[in-house]
Amino acid sequence: MKNTTAIGQLGENIACDHLAAQGYAIIDRNVHMGNVEIDILAQHDSQLVVVEVKTRRDDHLDPNFDIDRKKIMRLCRAAATYVKIHDLPLEIRIDAILVTTHADGSHSLSHLPDIALPPRLSRR
């Protein structure tokens, strides 16, 4: 049995491959803004896409249950800080990618775009 860190990293690798295949440019991974970790930062058109990746083995709970309003708000604040620090002229979008690994080595993936739209940031 793999440990949770290895399973999480596998899920993030699968998510990055999926995003790249969909035309997203991966900017960064595992970015820490204060006490919040952003799994994947990607650019798609004029948007900075903050991607929360949840990976589970098929014998465990549905990963949807791990993304709550509190988590989304922390991601929004972290993304706003990232945009400000790096002076990026991009709108922010929050996506979730849910990866389920199966005992036979296969996986399934659900990409949920726009799980939350943060407030528009003023650019002064």
Describe the protein's architecture and organization:
With 124 residues, this protein is of the alpha+beta class. Helix content is 28%, strand content 40%. Strands 1-2-3-4-5 form a five-stranded mixed beta sheet. The chain is globular, with a radius of gyration of 15 Å. It starts with a helix and ends in an 8-residue tail after the last strand. The model has no long low-confidence stretch (mean pLDDT 86).
Rounded Rg = 15 Å
Provide the helix percentage: 25-40%
Helix-strand makeup class: alpha+beta
Count of beta strands = 5
Proportion of β residues? Answer: 35-45%
Q: Roughly what is the average pLDDT, rounded to an integer?
A: 86
Q: Spell the H/E element sequence.
A: HEEEHEE
Low-confidence stretches: none
| Ends distance | 51 Å
Strand order of the largest sheet: 1-2-3-4-5
* Total helical segments: 2
Shape: globular
What's the quick description here?
It is built from two helices and five strands, in the order H-E-E-E-H-E-E.
Topology:
Blueprint: H1 4-21, E1 25-33, E2 36-44, E3 47-57, H2 69-85, E4 91-101, E5 107-116
Parallel strand pairs: 3-4
Antiparallel strand pairs: 1-2, 2-3, 4-5
Short descriptors:
single chain; 124 residues; alpha+beta; five-stranded mixed sheet; 2 helices
